[in-house]
UniProtKB/TrEMBL annotation, chains A, B:
GO BP terms in the entry: amino acid biosynthetic process; aromatic amino acid family biosynthetic process; chorismate biosynthetic process
Protein name as catalogued: 3-dehydroquinate synthase
Gene: aroB
The UniProt record lists the keyword Nucleotide-binding: yes
UniProt subcellular location: Cytoplasm
Binding site for Zn(2+): E176, H235, H252
Residues reported in the UniProt entry to bind NAD(+): 63-68, 97-101, 121-122, 134, 143, 161-164
GO terms of molecular function: 3-dehydroquinate synthase activity; metal ion binding; nucleotide binding
């Protein structure tokens, strides 16, 4: 005998991203703000002037990627249990990508899933982590290896928080903006070439266009079965660089910046972009003091490290290769010979 | 500025439940069988004669509800990481409800979600846990408080496994079958009154009807916002009984059996079912040696314990009250006076 469980259904996961000064918000339910020590010191008062709730608690975690782990997730969950949060309660992620990912993951598993909203405080989390619904934590095997797809109910991007953001972190966020432009939108790339991000309206415009671009991609492919993989442009190389430098030397966006330069080198070798286009990308990254070069000490080891990347399945490695500016090719057919020849351009002898 | 993230989409989560001898299955991918020591000793050879895969590993957990915790989840996840499972790999839950819930939860968070199938080996997990997509684990705050909704890709219910099932466990599963009949299907209830479960075809028929009933309910309300709550018939009282007896004296299905008798008492008081109907349910439960009585030592304490149930929000408690046989009322408006008067019928003085 066979019974079919007909779960075909339409879910409305839509949500709005507001890019503006944070409005006053009142929630008639229990709300937990999840933040870290740094953001709390700088901005918790600002937030609390704008957010009120039937019952409001704050969970403050230590700041840093090294705390993106099971222990921090349990701290969040335990605070919710202690305060008897129920299925209608709400979490607010108030911080950068680490806080956003962990808050989203905790929300996805607390009593099988409760709502959360994001108030990202770094440029990187505003343009990247705020769209896509990826949540998770790190463990001893690697980054973001445990997690869930769980969409926020709303995202509030307030440029005010960027005023206290260190320049290096600003650059790391800018790298992801460049990524979005190179892979999907030539017009946006040209806008960035002329833009002065110190001007708030220009900054808002850039954030909005980056968010819109990512939103279009994610809407087409929420669970990363196809085109969404293009958002990993620069990441296949970047992850190896982060691994080799033990996540200490570079911020994620900085490693991605170098990774994009490497992917462009691959694209040049395949005749997919011109040398002028590769130079234009490099020049844009340098405008925000992003690193664009890297010395590979052991080319074979760098190559082997591709296969440790969780986004690869079996022995295929997926590369995101720009095709001109504003278009992209996703390929897992790059030969070892081709890749080694690209990596050799970054080898010590050519460094 | 505001950007809408248009994630409205149709997901096809449909899957088939096969109720028959397990067919031979080959998977061209990495597969992990998650089981416990008891089921492994009894039935792993039987399973391995029927399941082959590109690469097959077995993760054996200790048997028992007390191991439904973070440590066991981590054991599963770590085995997957050690064996380099990827997003296309598959988990097979091979055991009762505890194994099913934990395997489903591990599958839901491993690399943000991979597939799993269920091969339930107890009557309870065959008729109940195999339909609905609820996954999770216990923690110090209570049962199933951390988890996810994650649907299996397929369920195989093989009555063969029931041959080794102790009679008490068979009864506990039967209680959930009775639950489905009383709340949704009078015809099914009458079938059960006449049925002899020792006959395999009758057993298959009963399992199939229970699964179909639950499937219809879950399809209407996958995330338990409405009618699905009716499946908690007997559970509001049952949970308190399980808590009071520290999960030691009764199996879950046994506590639910008593809980249904209590819910029927409530229904009688409200004039929703007749005394004859209440007696008929009790008689059916006794046919499989299920407990139908319970001495409440402290009525106020029993009443207060309703509010510890996670399915309650704020100060409302939801009761599932049969309306005749085959229909149900979901109410969070039962007065304290009414409830106390029902509980008094189970008080020591009346015991």
């Amino acid at each position: 005998m066979q019974v079919n469980i007909p779960l075909k259904k339409t879910i409305d996961n839509s949500y709005d991203i507001t890019i503006d000064s944070l409005p006053k918000l009142h929630f008639d339910k229990k709300v937990a703000i999840i933040t870290n020590t740094t953001v709390s010191d700088l901005h918790l008062d600002y937030l609390k002037e704008r957010i009120t709730a039937k019952e409001l608690i704050v969970v403050t975690l230590p700041d840093g990627e090294q705390y993106k782990n099971q222990e921090s997730i349990n701290k969040i969950l335990n605070a919710l249990f202690e305060n008897r949060f129920n299925r209608k309660s709400l979490l607010i992620a108030f911080g950068g990508g680490v806080i956003g990912d962990m808050t989203g993951f905790a929300a996805s598993i607390y009593q099988r899933g409760i709502d959360f909203i994001q108030i990202p405080t770094t440029l990187l989390s505003q343009v990247d982590a705020s769209v896509g619904g990826k949540t998770g934590m790190n463990n001893e095997y690697g980054k973001n290896l445990v997690g869930a797809f769980h969409q926020p109910k709303a995202v509030y991007i307030d440029p005010y928080f960027l005023k206290t953001l260190p320049l290096r972190e600003f650059g790391a966020g800018f790298a992801e903006i460049v990524k979005m432009a190179v892979t999907f939108n030539k017009d946006f790339f040209e806008f960035l070439q002329d833009a002065d991000m110190r001007d708030e309206q220009t900054l808002i415009e850039a954030i909005t266009r980056a968010v819109k671009t990512k939103a279009e991609v994610v809407a087409k492919d929420e669970k990363e079965h196809g085109i969404r993989a293009a958002l990993n442009y620069g990441h296949t190389f970047g992850h190896v660089i982060e691994n080799e430098t033990k996540y200490e030397k570079y911020l994620h966006g900085e490693a991605v910046a170098i990774g994009m330069v490497m992917a462009n080198e691959l694209a040049c070798s395949m005749g997919l972009i011109s040398n002028d286009e590769a130079v234009a990308v490099k020049f844009l990254l340098e405008k925000y003091s992003l690193p664009v070069d890297y010395e590979i000490k052991d080319i074979q080891k760098f190559y082997d490290a591709f296969f440790l990347d969780k986004k690869s399945s079996d022995s295929k490695i997926t590369f995101i290769i720009p095709k001109g500016i504003g278009d992209v090719v996703i390929s897992d057919e790059c030969s070892k010979e081709l890749l080694i020849s690209v990596l050799e351009k970054f080898g010590v002898d050519n460094g």
